[in-house]
Fold:
Amino acid sequence: IYTLSLHDALPIFGRNDNTPSSPFFEESPGGRRIRIYPNPVEFELSISIPDYEPAMRGEYSLFNLNGVMLLRRRITGTTTQIEMSRYPKGVYLLHIRLKDAVSVWKVIKR
Structure:
């Protein structure tokens, strides 16, 4: 059973407690906190999962709005970077899967 949620919320701004200083989005699918930043992104998008464990079998996929998968990779640690500079400006969908929970994030590329 998969839980699917689409994130299209206003950004939360970073604080002085080791969080990013640029706008980021945060959600807790399956009880695991996920943060993506910066969004909008120009060069590198980060996925942060502070309590990530390999048993979560995490992976992410990046899609354009035509539904074409552009990238699919495993998540191997608490922070994962996605190189976005090679993609044209526009809106993308980032699917993040941790065990049986799937979340979908709207990413804006500048």
